[in-house]
Fold these 3 entries.
Entry 1:
Amino acid sequence: MESFVLRRVRIDDVQFGEKSGVEGTRLTVSERELRELLLEDRFLKDVKVEIARPGESKRIVPIKDILEPRAKLDPEQEVFPGVISDLNYAPGTGTTVVLDGVCVMTSGRLVNFQEGLVDMTGPGAGFCLFSGKNNVVLVMEPAENISKHDHERAVRLAGVKAARYLGALGRNIPDYSETVYPVAGPVELAALYPHLPKIVYVCQTIAQGLLHDNYYYGVNAQGCLPMLVHPTEFMDGAIVSGNCAAPCHKHTTYHLQNNPIVEDLLDEHGKTLNFLGVIVTPVRTAFGEKERICRQAFKLARMLGAEGAIISEDGGGNPEADLMFATRLFEKNGIKVVLVTDEYAGSDGASPGLADITPEADAVVTNGNGNQRVTLPPMKETIGVLDTVERITGGHSGGLRPDGAVEMEIAGIMGSTNELGIENLRTIAI
């Protein structure tokens, strides 16, 4: 049986230096080297590289995407297949090196209003795992007179290039920890564990146009039907976020690389369940498209012999129609479903939290209420453009106080109610 190895190189500090490299648990970043790499793209006019460490009085806004630095141990193999690498390379096997404790953030002028905020200290930090990371922030200035779509593409590719560039610095570091995952197909898995319940994971990814898109192997998911992937493909960046959904619950590329549902199912595989694989499903806008995609996802699950499914949402509002349609279809045909979502239930939590419901959805995990209000104190330094806090999702006109404090909903904090369950808010049964 093949295997996939995730090799984590621990990083506790990031500094600037003349040459990029890793020594002990310190990452040194050459701004010159990184700028030269990124400015090869003619759609970028300039890039400034900033560093934000845990506990520093820094506010980062607006943030488009967040990625974890990763690279294959074998230079002949690649992460982020189809994005900036060989279209024919299949990820999810071999050894992938991770700079654990580091994130790449893409920032600069707003591409679209649904971009987010991270505070490195204070009450906002409690809502966001990225506040505890050493963040390399790319503050990008787009070329003149380009479209929003070209701007988004340039920012997305810059994040991927930077994540791969930094990840490769960990290849020859002797101190690391490793996790080994088996790689096998559903037929082999069914034979290995015939006594365990067969489970699939259905992972929604927004594909709605208007800058609400994700990319499968570099292809805009708008043109895709559901795709069966091995869980470890997520860890190699087979799905990259270009998604401008609300910051609190959109899946950044980091969330997809570190999908906790995938990791937990792999941990339980062969013990309490038989994890057959992941069905990645695009979320379109029209009801006809939603029905077609849900039926295709169900067909794949039934062909695999699934007895149970976890379905996670991406975004909010109309994706809940997909959640409920799929739940009815699965449950009425004997496949038990658990849903993972979040809510927009009003600032007092008293409003309906979901745009659609169905009686079959009787096992639901929610990861928080995006309408929860917070006041974030002023920070000593802003990375990015501070006044965008009044225009991003969760912000409002007048929300930026004269002293630099911010009144907003946690909808504007990156990942605060992430629907994969990776963040600090949680469901408590009462």
Entry 2:
Amino acid sequence: CQRVESPVASHQLTMIRAFLLALFLALPLGAAEVSFRNHVQPILAKAGCSGGACHGAAAGQGGFKLSLRGENPAADFVTLTHEQVGRRVNAVHPESSLLLLKPTMSVPHEGGKRFGEDSPEYDLLRRWIAAGMPSISRDEPALQSLKVTPLEQFVVEPDDSVQLQAIAKFADGTTRDVIRLACFETSQPSVNISVNGLVQRERFGEVTVTVRYLDQQVPVRLAFLPARPGFVANVSPAANYIEDRKSTRLNSSHRT
């Protein structure tokens, strides 16, 4: 006679097969190294997904809501992994996940293209999905501080750019280069900033670039100045600390 499996048993078998396949896919990729809090959340923030103009808005976008700037990782994890199961994230076929299809514009996306299939962002998200979407571990060391360099710099033409560096220090003492995962916000649109933190001058002037990673943010003050050969600042003696500080900045800004 023919054996008939119950719907429950069939569902359990499907889930077991999916788990084993996801585990198999994850092993050669080192996907266990991908952290939801330290990798996935920053990628979503940098891509603008959790911004106030997108899914971080009070009502979200298109039925998909994330916490503003990823401030609530636990809630965002549930949203991504439990809502619309099999569509936003699919461990059996990671490349079919909306979390990858939407930002690469493989399917229509109102937010436009956020990164490509050959990008580190895509690779990290795919590896996390293939690993079975591991949640936030209590043993995972928390971010302790963020060191950004330089904190202040004068840039005189013909120089027109500054490369920022961002090193995160965690509670267990480990450090990590996070410039690719950091968000950049400028006080005015006088510069362009690449995904790797290269600040390129668009016009002369001063600008503050805020570098943000998770809950840490550091302001960087930059001044892009035109070359003035032979210029000598005529500065009166400083009467106080503030004037002395301004005099030092003025003189240093015109050094060639």
Entry 3:
Amino acid sequence: MRPIFNPEREFLQNECGIPLPENSCWMDRLQIIGYTIEQNKVHKHVLGKVTVNGMKISYKSKNNEIKYLTHADLANHYDDRLSQLESDSMNLTRDMSIKYANHNVRICSSEGKDSLVTKHIVRKVLPDTKVLFSNTSLDTAQTYKSIKSDANYEIINPSEGFYQWQARYKYIPTKHHRACCPIFKENAMITHLDKDTPYLFFFGMRNQESATRKDYMDEWQNQSWNTSLWVGVLPIRKWTELDVWLYIIRERLVFNELYRYGYGRVGCIAACPFRTPYEGVIDKNFLPTYWHRWQRILHDDFMENGKWVSLNCTLQEYLDGAWKAGVLRDDPTDEVIVEFATYKGIDVATATKFFNQSCVACGKKLKKDESALNMKYSGRNTTHKYCLKCLAEELKCKTSKLKQDIKDFKQQGCALF
């Protein structure tokens, strides 16, 4: 749940012709929401729903003519609740600073909305608290501008930027396996700070954010820290996302400009697999340089690794988001097979033999090059295929020899590879 600000409102109007009122609408999981007050009770209304198909969006409107509360009016209505939340969070901050009086106090920030509120509240109690920011190198100019507006910051820079690291390892993060957060945020902080020095960290994590965080308590420790001297505190863990935004509006806090474009979160633009399809459209429109760079990386990865076969998807499907979640479908469509055949310069019948093939010895799904090597050795019509390990056993040779054969066949320009 987040407010829709003018840049996003104008974007939606240009893309879909949505006539949205200014400073009155909210986005809640692609539903556009408005609020009214009737008999001193707040009522939520759905104005319509945004749909994302590929890199295009559409909108289904309910043609509501109701006059909705402005963002500021809604914040004023919840003033008592916001004041109580603020008081509870400040008391927790004060209690923890007393309990851990000998610890060095830091606020850990991503420059997002939750970090902003946490920073504001902690500094009401501990005015000179320094902020730690882990620079993932995937942040934007808007985020760096936000950092530089505060002089009391300590920036943790990685030894190697994300794009350099990605190029070295040819790594594409997915929802099932990603290394970017541990490497460029957690590990960077662990490496930067002395584990024998006691620290009291304030984080903006909230219970409502995810199933993983719903059971977090006021005090929290990251198992990766490998030290008992570091303590984390979550002063706004009980707040909802709506609470956070209403508080920001009430306090008139200066927030990261990315939220004005329609982002739900501000870290790791374009390359984060947990970015929504809608944010992909936002990337393309508001941050095209970042979007095009990541699209080029995805394009090269797909082509070089022949991911038609491993993911059962087309190149465009991969670029539009299939890279985030692994295998797109159980069986390839005709379009996938034809596109792969065209790229490889082979006939469709031969191309089909690359898909959903398993080792006859161990049952392991074959990779593209393994399937190609079997056809190279036994003919394109073979139905008896082995994985690299089992093929080496069958041929009584080392897998290193087969790997070298694959390299040689590629250098010779064999269409199968």
